[in-house]
Write a structure and sequence with these properties.
The chain is of the alpha/beta class. The chain has a single domain (about 1-10, about 20-155), classed as Rossmann fold (3-Layer(aba) Sandwich). It is built from 5 helices and 5 strands. Helix 2 (about 50-65) packs parallel to helix 3.
């Protein structure tokens, strides 16, 4: 999704296996903004102890970074958010961060499954974006919203 959002192919390494990102990675966007790729842990195939460590690191990152303005929360549209993701969204909102709830892999949904996917995402208390990095669906709308927030907050 980060590659699709920035329009830079290969910017972030990808894997077919959820949970491969296990570090915090920063990507500069211009001189005053950055996108940060946080580890996935809600649906990731990893030991419980590692998921707990990653969850703690993410909560610490979100709580301590004073220059954060938003969280783009990616959730596979075929399954919807799990408890960890709902808690992460609540933590971001309690900090006053803008929240972008992104239902990924929308291209994998049948037309009849889309409404249910959107309904599941509403558990995050944010208007969901149905997106697909494969087809580009929803990417431009998400990009516009993120750029508008950056402009509003003074980043370029």
């Amino acid at each position: 999704m980060l590659n699709a959002l920035t329009g830079v192919r290969g910017l972030a390494r990808t894997s077919r296996t959820p949970g491969r990102t296990q570090a915090i990675n920063f990507f500069a966007i211009g001189r005053t903004a950055a996108l940060v790729d946080l580890p996935g842990y809600g649906y990731a195939k990893m030991p419980q102890a590692m998921a707990a460590r990653i969850g703690h690191a993410m909560r610490e990152f979100l709580a301590s970074r004073t220059n954060l303005c938003a969280l783009i929360l990616l959730v596979d549209s075929r399954r919807g958010p799990e408890r960890e993701e709902i808690d992460l969204a609540a933590s971001a909102r309690s900090r006053g961060l803008a929240l972008f709830a992104v239902a990924t892999k929308a291209d994998k949904l049948k037309r009849s499954e889309r409404a249910a996917a959107v309904a599941r995402m509403r558990a995050l208390d944010a208007e969901p974006f149905l997106c697909s990095a494969e087809t580009g669906e929803g990417i431009e709308a998400l990009r516009r919203q993120v750029l508008a927030l950056c402009t509003e907050r003074g980043a370029r």
